[in-house]
Inverse folding.
């Protein structure tokens, strides 16, 4: 096993340990859909060799600092037992998506035993003719993009014929990293983020983030600096003044969540819509979500208003292997859905305009620097500051571009992937967009006490996608 058996938790990672609460568990949830039942012994072997052996944190537990002063430590679990973290079961009849959704919902409110590593994987038979890998991992261990890369690192390219871990590095193409690890491109709000080196202290994190703000200026001298200064001022104003209006999807979260998701949506048709409007696939999908929120508000007797979501932006180089320590290396930015706009094309155009502004702004490195500063405060202040910013949004929206070509897990085709990051504060609605092998799936995680009928919201999203695709015709 690589790495030290004891190390201090990074300040930003410690935020997620301190933010765990019954109404919003700080747990990243993922589903990998398989075309048939694999050899589960082989899957467990892949977990051992491609996850546990590469990333020691999966064998470690968080231990508070002496007298609870300072940062906690990661240290090896002396009683580590893989059987405690990996279980196998069969889905209840009729074994469809509804049954799987109900099963997932039964586990979303559960906390981890802090005496052991903070993760679990369920190997589920009986999902139609296939199977599912359902995983839950505490956010303190890693961010969602990194965990997606870890999950997909257990798979191999279709046609490779590999049922054993590859020994040699494959030819470097696109964003390949370590053998068996699949490139995952973050497309959240802004298309990726600037590279950032790993740093050890909060002060270094702040310098790194602020340094990126400066580098976002242009080399043309004074004009670039002035433009960057204006954008920085705009971002500061947005961070402080942004708020989301009262709506049928807002309220005080409960301990229980609902999950629903679409089937595979046609990627090529959605890309045609994007090209038609001179935008990106992300613009189209975010516009569709805005339309769904608009209709949902109307159907619940409210005048539609613009609603704010938080969008994670990856700050880790995607052409480099993940560090063995994993951890969190991302920023959060605000995106305001034009969900108060009732006209389809106007909503799409406004989504593109707001996305374009976000891509040009220094908001991502600024919020990363802000998170590093917050991480250096005491837990009470830390929670208050995180809630101050979290409560400006209804939840978190992630957009991950997975492999373009089909993958195999233990020789069995992977048919789709979904993953949700946790909310905080008063978040009540999380949205996951995951593209994979020519299709895209969208999943919602809604608070059961506030959004009682996420199926209606999902149906509105699917109708909005169909209406956008009809534009091409």
């Amino acid at each position: 096993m690589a790495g030290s058996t004891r190390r201090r938790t990074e300040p930003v990672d410690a935020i997620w340990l301190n933010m765990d609460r019954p109404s919003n568990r700080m747990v990243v949830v993922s589903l990998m859909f398989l075309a048939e039942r694999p050899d589960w012994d082989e899957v467990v072997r892949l977990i051992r060799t491609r996850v546990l052996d590469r990333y020691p944190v999966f064998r470690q537990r968080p231990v508070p600092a002496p007298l609870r002063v300072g940062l906690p430590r990661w240290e090896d679990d002396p009683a580590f037992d893989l059987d405690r973290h990996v279980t196998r079961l069969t889905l209840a009849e009729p074994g469809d998506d509804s049954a799987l959704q109900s099963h997932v919902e039964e586990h979303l409110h559960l906390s981890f035993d802090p005496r052991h590593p903070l993760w679990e994987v369920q190997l589920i038979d009986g999902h139609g003719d296939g199977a599912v890998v359902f995983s839950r991992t505490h956010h303190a261990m890693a961010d969602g993009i990194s965990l997606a890369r870890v999950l997909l690192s257990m798979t191999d390219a279709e046609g490779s014929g590999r049922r054993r871990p590859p020994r040699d590095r494959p030819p470097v193409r696109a964003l390949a990293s370590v053998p068996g690890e699949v490139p995952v491109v973050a497309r959240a709000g802004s298309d990726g983020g600037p590279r950032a080196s790993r740093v050890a202290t909060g002060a270094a994190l702040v310098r790194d983030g602020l340094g990126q703000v400066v580098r976002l200026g242009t080399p043309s001298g004074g004009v670039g600096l002035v433009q960057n200064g204006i954008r920085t001022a705009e971002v500061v104003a947005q961070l402080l003044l942004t708020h989301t209006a009262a709506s049928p999807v807002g309220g005080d979260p409960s301990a229980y969540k609902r999950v629903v998701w679409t089937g595979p949506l046609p990627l090529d048709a959605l890309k045609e819509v994007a090209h038609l409007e001179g935008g990106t696939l992300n613009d189209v999908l975010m516009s569709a979500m805005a339309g769904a929120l608009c209709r949902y508000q109307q159907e619940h007797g409210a005048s539609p208003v613009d609603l704010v979501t938080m969008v994670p932006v990856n700050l880790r180089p995607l052409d480099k292997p993940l560090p063995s320590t994993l951890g969190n290396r991302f920023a959060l930015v605000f995106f305001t859905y034009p969900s108060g706009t009732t006209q389809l094309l106007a909503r799409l155009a406004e989504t593109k305009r707001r996305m374009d502004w976000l891509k040009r702004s220094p908001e991502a490195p600024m919020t990363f620097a802000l998170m590093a500063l917050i991480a250096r405060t005491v837990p009470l202040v830390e929670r208050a500051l995180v809630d101050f910013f979290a409560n400006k949004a209804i939840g978190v929206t992630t957009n991950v571009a997975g492999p373009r070509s089909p993958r195999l897990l233990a020789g069995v085709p992977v048919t789709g992937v979904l993953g949700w990051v946790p909310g905080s504060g008063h978040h009540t609605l999380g949205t996951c967009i995951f593209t994979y092998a020519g299709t895209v799936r969208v999943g919602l995680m809604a608070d059961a006490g506030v959004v009682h009928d996420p199926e209606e919201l999902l149906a509105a999203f699917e109708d909005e996608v169909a209406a956008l695709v009809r534009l091409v015709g």
User: Anything to note?
Assistant: Residues 55 and 324 are 5 Å apart (CA to CA). DSSP finds 13 helices and 18 strands in the chain.
